[in-house]
Amino acid sequence: MYVAVKGGEQAILSSYQLLDQQRRGDTSVPELSVAQIRQQMKLAVDRVMTEGSVFDPELAALAIKQACGDLVEAIFLLRAYRATLPRLGSTQPIDTGKMVLDRRISATFKDLPGGQVLGPTYDYTQRLLDFSLLATSAQVEPASTSQTVGAAQTTESGTAGEHFSPRVIDLLNREGLIETHHATPNDPAPFDLTRQPVRFPADRSTRLQNLARGDEGFLLAMAYSTQRGYANSHPFVGEIRLGSVEVEFVPEELGFAISIGDIEITECQMINQFAGSKTEPPQFTRGYGLAFGHSERKAMAMSLVDRALRAAELGELVQSPAQMPEFVLSHSDSLEASGFVQHLKLPHYVDFQSELELVRKMRTAPPQGQASTDGLEDDHA
Predict the structure, then answer these.
(1) Three-state DSSP state, 166
(2) pLDDT at 228 over 70
């Protein structure tokens, strides 16, 4: 028995060495550094930070390198590290209305105060392979100073290069055409999904936490299903914002908020039709999405699923998977999904042998009622 254990241990250690070799690749090729991953694989880094629940581009880049580019494994690594960190306190709610914008677009209003800020995006590119990127010394031309459409690139103070613009939703709020949610001093503290498991029924703050950490591919599929008729949904992108926002914290010894830094986030406000109910007039409703870094697809999918999960709250018929909180929230986490699927490749020798013996016995035993049937056949002959 000892020899078998020792042999298994040596095989595992050899597996580690092979993994290191696979990660490094051809030694004649320069090694990919964490700094390169952070700077040149930004969208992957932002996804790992969002689903790993840690805003730290360097650690996310390190996780991607360690995981050989497997983003789900990198998310696992980052979230496992997060579990070892002390909890110092909770920051103040961020004010996305004061976001320093790098990108801001709306599919509902063409002429916006502050203009449409296109920023960095694949939306207007052709999906063709750019073979010039094979050249390692390719130079990138600096972007022009004007990126806005329909307005000058200035802030309220007139400084070029920074944008502070009112939210698109505020335009509809002025006419009372969209639902509003006002925070009150008596609002309960948000449920902390990182410390307690989900309980059903889950309130909206819990659902949003779950969706923010949820697997982008899963949320994308759920969001896609709502657009294919598997939910009563007709969405419009009210606004997508990408930029930096200030984070504030109130130390106990001071008693007032201080700025502890800026983080880059993507916010999506999705506008949906609502026919009204016995208590509410016809108006637009909202779905909300927010993610670290430049994560538009994730934020959009999150906002679509958030709105679908509000079906019961709004008196709509719940009949599609994306409208069912227990189905969506129980299957959205990439770590849990990956763990359940991948555990199947671990040893299940005892379980399988027991089922194998059961199937063998079932095949050798006569079917139920077979003996009495044979007796009747003999008497008839």
Answers:
(1) coil
(2) yes
Nearest Cα neighbor of 47 from 246, 223, 215 is 215
Please answer whether residues 70 and 22 qualify as being in contact, where contact means their C-beta atoms are separated by less than 8 angstroms. Answer: no
Domain locations in the chain as residue ranges: 2-82, 96-122+145-182+189-338
- Judged on CB neighbours under 10 Å (0-12, 13-18, 19+), 281 is exposed
- 100-105 sheet: strands from edge to edge: 148-149, 116-117, 100-105, 235-249, 258-274, 283-292
| Residues 102 and 260: beta-carbon distance below 8 Å | no
CA dihedral defined by 269, 275, 281, 287, rounded to 10 degrees?
Answer: -20
Q: Is the peptide bond before 86 cis (omega within 30 degrees of 0)?
A: no
The CA-atom distances, in angstroms, between 103 and each of 87, 88, 213, 289, 296 are 32, 32, 23, 16, 10
For 214, counting Cβ atoms within 10 Å of its Cβ (0-12 exposed, 13-18 middle, 19+ buried), the class is buried
pLDDT tens sequence across 169-211: 888 887 777 887 777 777 777 888 888 889 999 999 999 999 9
Maximum Cα interatomic distance, the chain, rounded to a whole number of Å: 106
d(CA 33, CA 46): 17
- How does 340-376 read in b/e, with b if 16+ C-beta sit within 10 Å? eeeeeeeeeeeeeeeeeeeeeeeeeeeeeeeeeeeee
The proportion of the chain whose per-residue pLDDT surpasses 90, expressed as a percent, equals 59
What are phi and psi for residue 204, nearest 5 degrees? -65, -40
Task: Give the phi and the psi of residue 288 in degrees, each rounded to 5.
Answer: -130, 140
CA distance 195 to 53: 13
Q: How confident is the model at residue 277 (pLDDT cuts 50, 70, 90)?
A: low
> Within its chain, how far is the Cα of 213 from the centroid?
5
Q: What is d(CA 334, CA 332) in angstroms, rounded to the nearest whole number?
A: 6
Number of other CB atoms surrounding residue 325 within 10 Å:
23
